[in-house]
Design a protein that fits this description.
Elements: H1 3-6, E1 23-29, H2 35-47, E2 54-61, H3 67-77, E3 81-86, H4 91-101, E4 106-110, H5 121-129, E5 135-139, E6 146-148, H6 151-168, E7 179-183, H7 184-193, H8 201-211, E8 216-220, E9 222-224, H9 233-252, H10 281-308, H11 311-333, H12 337-361, H13 369-400
Parallel strand pairs: 1-2, 1-4, 2-3, 5-8, 6-9
Antiparallel strand pairs: 4-7, 5-7
C-alpha cells in the first residue's frame, strides 16, 4: 500500500470530512527504545483492513537513547510508518510539528505505552471522519470507561477536570487522555494559538476549540496506568494550573478567537455560549481586588491554624473560612451570583482544597513554614484566576446579553 500517494493533501472543505478522508496517527516518543517496536507493530496489526487511507508517524523529540534508530528501522520496514526527529522536548511540541506538516485530512495521536485500549481507535476516528465532530477524544471518566490507576492520580485527574468543567464550562470530561483525533484544517489554526509545548497542550487545544464553537466528541476508553510512566503528577498539575491561569487571562481579554472552517449555514456547535466573550475592565478590577484580599486573608488564617494542626487540616480550615468571606464579597459584586455559586461553589472549593493540599505536601519538612505558605498561596492565586473565568461565564456573560 503506497500511503504517500494515498495521503496527498485534499482541498480545504467547509462541509463534513468526506468518507475517504485520510488519517495520520502520530506517536510522540522520548527515550522509548524498548516500548516503541511493540507499540507500532500492535497498532499496525489493529489498522489492518481499516477502510480509510492511513499512515503512522513516529516523532522523536529529543531522545538520548536508541529511540531514533529504532524509529528509523521501523520506517524502513513498513511503508505505512514514517519517522521524524525534532530537538524540542514535550508532547505538545511533537504533536505540533507532526500535525502542521501532515498531508492527511485527519490527524490523531496516541501514547506509546498503549495505556489506552485500541478497541476505541475506530470509534474515535469515525466521529471525525463522518463529519459529526471536529475533534474526538478518549475519556477515562465517562460511563462505560474502565480505568485502573493509583488513588493519587485519580484524585488529581478528577479535581483538575472539575476545575475545567466549573471554571471554564468545559463540556468534555477528560482533557489529558493521550488519545485524540482532529480535523487537520481545524487543527492548524488552533495550533497557531496554542502556546504550550508540554502536557498542557491537550487542555489548551480543547479549551480553545470549545471557546470557538467547535464540537468535541468523547469516546469512553479502557485505560491502565503505565507503571513506567514519565509523568510527574504533582509537577504536571502545578504547570497545568499556570497554563489555566494564562488561558483564563487570554479569554478575559478577548484574545482567544480563532478563524476555523465551520459547516454552513449553522455553526459547528449550536450553543452560542461558546462564542468568544469580552470582559469589562471594571469586572477585572473588582475581582482582582477581592482575589488579592482573599489571598492575604488565606495566608493570615493558615499561619495560626498551622501552629495548632498539621498542614492538611490547617489548610482545610483556612480555605473554608476564606471561601466563606469571598462568597459574601462576590455576592455584592455581581447580581445573580448567589444562585450560580450555590450550585458550583462546593465543587470549586473541593478542587481548590485538593490542589492546595497537594502543593503544601510537596514542600519538604526542612523548608519551613514560609515555604508552606508560599506554596499554598501561589496555588490559591492561580485558582482565583480560574474562579474569575467561572464567574464571567456564569454571571457576567448572562448580564451582558
Amino acid at each position: 500500500m503506497d500511503t504517500r500517494a494515498a495521503l496527498e493533501p485534499s482541498p480545504l472543505l467547509l462541509d463534513p470530512v468526506p468518507s475517504l478522508a485520510s488519517v495520520d496517527i502520530v506517536i510522540p516518543v522520548l527515550n522509548e527504545e524498548r516500548a516503541l517496536p511493540g507499540c507500532v507493530r500492535t497498532l499496525l496489526h489493529r489498522l489492518d483492513g481499516f477502510p480509510l487511507p492511513w499512515r503512522v508517524t513516529i516523532v522523536d523529540n529529543g531522545s538520548t537513547d536508541a529511540t531514533w534508530r529504532v524509529a528509523g528501522a521501523l520506517a524502513g520496514e513498513f511503508a505505512e510508518v514514517h519517522a521524524r526527529r525534532i530537538q524540542v522536548k514535550g508532547r505538545g511540541a511533537a504533536l505540533r510539528a507532526a500535525w502542521q506538516a501532515s498531508p492527511a485530512d485527519i490527524v490523531a495521536y496516541m501514547d506509546v505505552d498503549l495505556s489506552t485500549d485500541l478497541d476505541a481507535l475506530f470509534p474515535l476516528l469515525a466521529a471525525v471522519a463522518s463529519g459529526h465532530s471536529e475533534i474526538a477524544i478518549g475519556t477515562r471518566l465517562a460511563h462505560g470507561s474502565r480505568t485502573r490507576r493509583s488513588l493519587r492520580r485519580e484524585i488529581v485527574s478528577r479535581g483538575y477536570n472539575a476545575l475545567l468543567r466549573y471554571g471554564f464550562g468545559a463540556r468534555f470530561s477528560d482533557a489529558q487522555c493521550g488519545f485524540k483525533a482532529v480535523r487537520a484544517d481545524v487543527a492548524r489554526p488552533l495550533l497557531a494559538r496554542v502556546e504550550d509545548d508540554s502536557w498542557f497542550f491537550d487542555t489548551e487545544l480543547l479549551l480553545l476549540a470549545e471557546h470557538n464553537g467547535l464540537r468535541v466528541h468523547e469516546v469512553p476508553v479502557d485505560w491502565i496506568e503505565d507503571a513506567d510512566s514519565r509523568v510527574q503528577v504533582v509537577r504536571t498539575a502545578i504547570d497545568d494550573l499556570k497554563g489555566l491561569a494564562r488561558v483564563a487571562r487570554t479569554m478575559a481579554r478577548g484574545g482567544a478567537g480563532v478563524e476555523v472552517a465551520r459547516r454552513e449555514p449553522a455553526p459547528a456547535h449550536p450553543d452560542p455560549v461558546l462564542s468568544p466573550r469580552v470582559v469589562t475592565s471594571a469586572a477585572i478590577t473588582s475581582f482582582a481586588a477581592i482575589g488579592t484580599v482573599s489571598a492575604v486573608l488565606y495566608a493570615l488564617l493558615y499561619l495560626p491554624l498551622r501552629g495548632l494542626w498539621p498542614p492538611v487540616p490547617a489548610n482545610l480550615g483556612a480555605l473554608v473560612l476564606t471561601c466563606l468571606c469571598t462568597l459574601v464579597a462576590n455576592r455584592r459584586w455581581a447580581p445573580g451570583l448567589r444562585a450560580a455559586m450555590r450550585l458550583r461553589a462546593p465543587a470549586l472549593v473541593l478542587a481548590t482544597y485538593v490542589l492546595t493540599t497537594l502543593a503544601v505536601l510537596t514542600v519538604p519538612p526542612w523548608a519551613g513554614l514560609a515555604a508552606e505558605v508560599s506554596a499554598i498561596v501561589t496555588t490559591y492565586c492561580l485558582l482565583t484566576l480560574l474562579r474569575f473565568a467561572a464567574l464571567d461565564r456564569l454571571v457576567l456573560a448572562r448580564t451582558r446579553n
